[in-house]
């Protein structure tokens, strides 16, 4: 009982110290020690990290996401991962109006066929290699080369990087998105507002779970599979629009 009362008191102190309203139900702390860190003043001392990792305890919950941003477009991409199964991708054209058409063009041209997932960081991301570097099994067509050479701007919204979301890869320039993208394997708060979320995995989380279990090796900052994970095909289908 004493420990419970102590935790309640700490929570009350944190709430009183915050000048913002109490957090909404969909705003959660990402770390188990957020309450104690907040009570120790870390929300101000380490604001950059704490505002994202501990939004509930620090009173930095983002505003509600505009539901329109989460409306799926009519296209679905069925990506066949050799030896693992199929993953179905859906897209958010209102959240990423430049990124989505660019990627759909690459998919329609067959640019991801025989590409591969070059990065598998369990609980973080499964990242598809850029088109220009991804395929060693078939030559890159001239059409794919032209489309892949284009870059897209950062289209940052309030959509959070949680498991299943699709996030655009880029270099240090926020407007340098090309053709590499990640399927999120867990919460990655540090990517919010820094990388474009353009869609989500609609079906095939069981496939991603199998991919997560592959043997990996560390190469610089990347955790990479020891054996190539080939995308045999990625085909665009049209579906009825849904939320």
TrEMBL record:
<comment type="similarity">
    <text>Belongs to the cyclophilin-type PPIase family.</text>
</comment>
<keyword id="KW-0732">Signal</keyword>
<feature type="domain" description="ShKT">
    <location>
        <begin position="27"/>
        <end position="61"/>
    </location>
</feature>
<keyword id="KW-0413">Isomerase</keyword>
<dbReference type="InterPro" id="IPR044233">
    <property type="entry name" value="CYP23-like"/>
</dbReference>
<dbReference type="InterPro" id="IPR003582">
    <property type="entry name" value="ShKT_dom"/>
</dbReference>
<comment type="function">
    <text>PPIases accelerate the folding of proteins. It catalyzes the cis-trans isomerization of proline imidic peptide bonds in oligopeptides.</text>
</comment>
<feature type="signal peptide">
    <location>
        <begin position="1"/>
        <end position="24"/>
    </location>
</feature>
<dbReference type="Pfam" id="PF01549">
    <property type="entry name" value="ShK"/>
</dbReference>
<dbReference type="InterPro" id="IPR002130">
    <property type="entry name" value="Cyclophilin-type_PPIase_dom"/>
</dbReference>
<keyword id="KW-0697">Rotamase</keyword>
<dbReference type="Pfam" id="PF00160">
    <property type="entry name" value="Pro_isomerase"/>
</dbReference>
<dbReference type="GO" id="GO:0003755">
    <property type="term" value="F:peptidyl-prolyl cis-trans isomerase activity"/>
</dbReference>
<dbReference type="InterPro" id="IPR029000">
    <property type="entry name" value="Cyclophilin-like_dom_sf"/>
</dbReference>
<feature type="domain" description="PPIase cyclophilin-type">
    <location>
        <begin position="85"/>
        <end position="236"/>
    </location>
</feature>
<protein>
    <recommendedName>
        <fullName>Peptidyl-prolyl cis-trans isomerase</fullName>
        <ecNumber>5.2.1.8</ecNumber>
    </recommendedName>
</protein>
């Amino acid at each position: 009982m004493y420990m419970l009362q102590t935790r309640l008191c700490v929570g009350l102190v944190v709430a009183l110290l915050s000048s913002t309203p109490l957090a909404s139900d969909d705003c959660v702390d990402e770390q188990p020690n957020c309450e104690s860190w907040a009570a120790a003043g870390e929300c101000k001392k380490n604001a950059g990290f704490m505002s994202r990792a501990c939004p509930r305890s620090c009173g930095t919950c983002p505003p509600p996401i505009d539901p329109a941003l989460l409306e799926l477009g009519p296209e679905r991409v069925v990506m066949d991962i050799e030896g693992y199964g199929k993953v179905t991708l859906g897209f958010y054209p209102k959240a990423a109006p430049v990124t989505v058409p660019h990627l759909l063009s690459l998919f329609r041209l067959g640019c991801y066929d025989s590409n591969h997932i070059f990065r598998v960081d369990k609980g973080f991301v499964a990242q598809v290699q850029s088109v220009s570097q991804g395929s060693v099994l078939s030559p890159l067509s001239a059409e794919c080369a032209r489309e892949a050479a284009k870059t897209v701007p950062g289209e940052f919204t309030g959509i959070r990087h949680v498991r299943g979301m699709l996030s655009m890869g880029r270099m240090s320039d926020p407007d340098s998105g090309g053709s590499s993208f990640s399927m999120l394997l867990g919460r990655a708060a540090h990517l919010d507002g820094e990388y474009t979320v353009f869609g989500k995995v609609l079906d095939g989380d069981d496939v991603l779970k199998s991919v997560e279990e592959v043997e990996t090796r560390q190469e610089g900052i990347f955790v990479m599979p020891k054996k190539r994970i080939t995308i045999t095909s990625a085909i665009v289908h049209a579906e009825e629009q849904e939320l």
